[in-house]
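Lab notebook page, bench 4
Experiment: in silico fold of construct C2
Operator: M.H.
Input chain length: 133 residues
Purpose: comparison with the prior construct
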Amino acid sequence: MKIAIGILILALVGFGAFKLWEYWDKTEQNKTVADPTAGVQPQSLQGLPQGLEQPLKEAQDKGPDAFKEFIDNIKKSPLVKDPRLAWIELDYVVMVAGKDPAEAKRVFRKVKERVPTDSPVYPRVQSLQKTFE
């Protein structure tokens, strides 16, 4: 009888481990499907001269105010354009959301209006839409 109970316990533990692994595998697959921008590399998007990549990183590191000033300055250049500009502005939206939600919503609305559905930035706009509308 002891052997039968031992085999039953071992079978239940094995079944539980299998179900746990199955659940983990399903959640890992959902993570890759849930992030539509996972394959997009911002640096590969057109619209920002290579020489502005380092100043962009520095402005992001300095915080929302410096980042906003940087964005306002690069918008004046005819060399800076979408889709990279839209991505940079969405980075700003995410950065400023905790400090100034009204500003984040305003900038998000402007970006959303000008990003076409076939843009590589559009999946990111859709993923942020529920938060900023």
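Observations: The chain has a mean pLDDT of 83. The first helix runs from residue 2 to 34.
Next step: discuss at group meeting.
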